[in-house]
Amino acid sequence: YYIQYQQMLVNINKVSLGGGETNYTALVICGNGDGLAGWAKGKGPKATRAIREVICFCIKFMVLVTALFQY
Q1: Does position 2 have pLDDT exceeding 70, yes or no?
Q2: Among 51, 9, 7, which Cα is nearest to 32's?
Q3: What's the distance, CA 17 to chain centroid?
Q4: Which of 15, 41, 43, 54 has the fewest CB atoms in 10 Å of its CB?
Q5: What order do you get walking across the sheet with 22-31 strand by strand?
Q6: 3-class SS of residue 63
Q7: Rounded to the nearest 5°, which phi and psi values hold at 3?
Q8: What rounded mean pLDDT belongs to the chain?
Q9: Cα dist from 47 to 14, 20, 21, 54, whole Å
């Protein structure tokens, strides 16, 4: 399902909580290369889970971007 979209991980941060717990936040941009684009930011207990969750949100809330100039 995600293969048809281009995904780019922009930022991932490790946040230390009290008691030795860590949380990760991720920012991802997705698009299909033909005008649909989306971005999302999310959290998770592990980096891979945070990225997977954010990709789902990113694809779910895509918008159509139109170009101002035609080349």
Answers
A1: no
A2: 7
A3: 23
A4: 15
A5: 6-16, 22-31, 36-44, 63-64
A6: strand
A7: -70, -30
A8: 87
A9: 8, 16, 13, 11
pTM: 0.78
Instruction: Tell me which H or E stretch contains 47.
Output: helix 47-60
pLDDT tens-place string over residues 14-55: 988 888 889 999 999 999 888 889 999 999 999 999 999 998
| CB of 50 closer than 8 Å to CB of 25 | yes
Report the alpha-carbon distance of residue 55 to residue 40 in Å, rounded: 7
- Distances in whole angstroms, Cα of residue 62 to Cα of each of 17, 31, 57: 32, 8, 9
